[in-house]
Amino acid sequence: MASSTVENYLKHLLLLAEGGDGLVPMGALAGALAVVPGTVTTMVKALAAGGLVEHRPRQGVRLTDAGRGVALGVLRRHRLVETFLVQVLKMDWAAVHAEAERLEHAISDDVLDRLDALLGHPAVDPHGDPIPTRQGRLDPSVYATLATCVADRPLRVVRVTEQSPEFLHFAEHSGLRPGTRVRVAGRNLAAGLVTVKRPAGRPLALSLAAAGKILVAPAR
Amino acid sequence: MASSTVENYLKHLLLLAEGGDGLVPMGALAGALAVVPGTVTTMVKALAAGGLVEHRPRQGVRLTDAGRGVALGVLRRHRLVETFLVQVLKMDWAAVHAEAERLEHAISDDVLDRLDALLGHPAVDPHGDPIPTRQGRLDPSVYATLATCVADRPLRVVRVTEQSPEFLHFAEHSGLRPGTRVRVAGRNLAAGLVTVKRPAGRPLALSLAAAGKILVAPAR
DNA sequence: TATTTAACTTTGACTATTCAAAATAGCCTG
DNA sequence: CAGGCTATTTTGAATAGTCAAAGTTAAATA
Ligand SMILES: [Mn+2]
Ligand SMILES: [Mn+2]
Ligand SMILES: [Mn+2]
Ligand SMILES: [Mn+2]
Fold this sequence. Notes:
The structure is a homodimer of 220-residue chains. With 220 residues, the first copy, chain A, is α+β, with helices and mostly antiparallel strands. Chain A has helices spanning 4-17, 26-33, 37-49, 65-87, 96-103, 109-118, 165-173, 208-211; strands spanning 53-56, 60-63, 144-145, 155-160, 181-188, 193-197, 204-207, 214-218.
């Protein structure tokens, strides 16, 4: 029913609402979708007429329950497809995001259920992003980052937020894929630097910005 | 580059040109795409402007070499996807056509190559339809049908043309999937009936129309 | 050859999605 | 409180694809 365009608007709305109260500024949505603001205003009014979003003029947009349901479906397809591409087709984890952007609109429920079973009902995708359940439940997943966690404790990388191929390649090269054990050796707030120790290899220096994109949990 | 719509026009043109001189009547294309004739005229003029087809007003359309290349790519994606869905995801061979209609527009070359390798570079899809090669070579595959082959010879089903779920389910139930050994026991042209013997099961009666959709080759 | 007809093309209109540029609303500053 | 700045909305226009209905063509029929 929903076009690819509509699905993308809703999915980005879901992603942009993470954390906040759900009210997404029109400009943020325009930026995420790479369209001009006027386009978003037009489209959001149409989505609101369809009951998928609530539009607060000059303040922002918010998903309705119906819209959130659609968005969770798209996100589930996206993340299961990414998992399939990495686990079964052995693709580079930095390349799968672009592929999934197209495939997420072309997968039926039947195919999705079979992929899910083939993969063993994974809870997270290759980047550690949680996969919404069939029932539309999405793990809130509140984790510390390498920029905010307590120092000198054994940690485990659980997720890499940010899907640009450049950053993902960097993370892979730096041994910071989900599952890796790490420890924050020190932070220099003034210089904006975090030093990380990994099982193998010398200490690694990261900017706070980069460190903030690596989510971690206490090891074991 | 080519939109899904354009890809569909070109793919159907390739399919409809099978056998004939390649000149497809506008009405045939309209029927295949389920649009009104005027829509086809409009679209074909655009495709001709883009060098993908040659339009002979009031006579028909024909693919150019460029258009044929695009069409072969779409057909390759369609048939490899069908093969994947049946072999890996264990889907019903009658259901995969509809799925492939959407997925054929969303698969990249990289993913396609990996699927092809995973499946062992198949030459035909689950229905026996030949899969174009990466280089754009398509097996002409001239086979007899159960309606036209010589009688009383050991045969092997090689292909089921016609992708409606109804017919495919019927073929499966009747033990007429590609690979099955069969023999034409007799024909009654007046009644329009063909009688077929299979390894197991009693003789099967088919209409000539149905028999014409089952392609066969000499066994062994 | 005149007529009928079926296939095809043209025309006018509509939906979905987008952009450029102008108008506006709020908020912040002095 | 007057200006000014920024985010947002409005307006006008464009593109892709489609349909309904009217107009044309050319082959088939009489
Ligand atoms: Mn992704
Ligand atoms: Mn991901
Ligand atoms: Mn098919
Ligand atoms: Mn097929």
